[in-house]
Amino acid sequence: KQWYQRRVAITAGEKECGKSPGFVHIIRGDPNSDGAKKIEKYLDYENFRHVCCKWHFKLTKAMVFCFDSKDYSQIRNGLTVLNKILPEFPVVLNLAQALEKRILKVKEEEKTVRPDLYALAMGYSAQLNSRRNTFIAEEKFHHVEKKSTENSASRNSSPARKDKRADSVKRRDETDSEKKRRRDDDLKKEGERKSAEKKVKQDVSPKTKANGVRERDSETDENRSKIRKK
Predict the structure, then answer these.
(1) Tell me: the pLDDT tens digits for 179-197?
(2) CA 208 from centre of chain
(3) What's the gap between Cα 20 and its chain centre?
């Protein structure tokens, strides 16, 4: 916290931490070989703030994992750790809200099941709420690069992108028209097939009726001739 709040401790703090081995960012060359070229780059203040934010995020993720595990020891240890580091953590607003949401869930689930965890969660929740006015947005905790809307608009309005979009629309329209043409052809063929079947039925039915009448007439004539012979 001391180093985070004091920029001079990182930038010009050779006496404090600025040139400490833990702040070495890049080492090129073999430091053990004689005459090897050694280039060291130390962590600057803004990168140190990024690292701090990453630490806070990973710590929040670990605590959330403990609370979601439903394990007694993990929940109890998580609450104990959070109570110990409460003066320094959480600082970022969205991380504090994530912890607050999980603590509320622990209180609801453990109220009648494990009262000791419920009591720990209640105590931490009360202290967390008392520090609500100290939370800051992530943009204030470290530098967050925002995507430029102008750059995105210029990329979208570039001639190459316009041509590509027009080609995509054209291909899509051609695909849709081809599908429609196929569907119309299928419907046309189906209609022709049904009309042909209907026509065949109409042509066959009178012939069948006439043949049936002739057969019945021939049978009647045969029966009459038999009766006369008798």
Answers:
(1) 777 888 888 888 888 787 7
(2) 69
(3) 41
